[in-house]
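Feature request disguised as a bug: please show the residue count (352) next to HAMP domain-containing protein in the output. Example input:
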Amino acid sequence: MPRRSRRLPSVVAATFAFVTLFAALGWATFSFMIEERLAGLEVAVQTASVADRSSALGLNFEKALEREWHSIQAVASTVSVADAASAQGRLRALANSMVQIDSVSVIAASGDVVASSDPARVGRDVGGQPWFRRGLAAGYVGEEEGASAAERLRYLNMAVPIETAGGRVNGVLSYRLEANWMARYLEEGAEALRMDVVVVDSAGDAVFEAMSLGRTAYDSVARATVTSRGAGVYLLDEGPSDPVLIAVPEKLAQAPFNALDWRIVAMVPADIAGAGYFALSRAAGGVLFAFGSLLLIGTYLFVAHFIRPLSTLAKDAEALIAGQETYPREVSSSREGAAISSALARLSLAGS
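Example output, currently without the count:
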């Protein structure tokens, strides 16, 4: 029996092992739970942030187009098709003063270009162009339909009707805007807002890109998301690429910009705001470490005050059984300890 008892763990060791084991299990469980909660919170925060930044960039872009729209309307109100030749110099000065304008043209109702800041355009017949017909009717903003693929990505047309003093429409004023101007505008906005931006058309094809972060790619997965889902923010975490949050906005709905059929898609790596997540994780880890340290200190004090005296009494009992002359130490740390101490004292006196 004594040999077997030596193989059993002491109460002190068992207590420390028990507390350490369950503290470790509690630590692991709490860490897993808080990591899941923080990860979900981080995704929610990033989703809201990406949605707000994407909306802000889209709104600013639309405001920039509005400024050009108001500009062309103001110019159209001062131009006469009948006296277009006298406006030639003015149109050239206007185009030279605004870097975003490639050319400004006055077009008669027949479709003939009668004046332009670009002399090479004078005399052309654009009457068959959809943008001219729509501009003659009510105003138009859109891609240069019928142009080559390269020109489609280079220019944007604005067209508004020109009216006579009596209110009769007898021509169109056209702005041919450089797409590079829009690209630079979006690049600056994307860099300021720390996100990658892709302008896509109705088919989901990229019109131009502003990859300020350089950590995302408008791949087949992103394209499928844009074309198959409605407006919203989506987490793309499938495939070989890193997880990406993609914000798909509504199409430009305000007339006349709705003819563009464009969407300004924003993309952000899902860990772009990860510093906040790791800071929260470190804070939670610090709390857990402090709690574990206090638990170990409390366990040590508990063992020293309540359990070690019982271990001492156990040794005294073994000494009495072995016939050694010893007087059990008095224990008053607990009711059980005091009772065992008193009993051993009586046994010691009875055996002497």
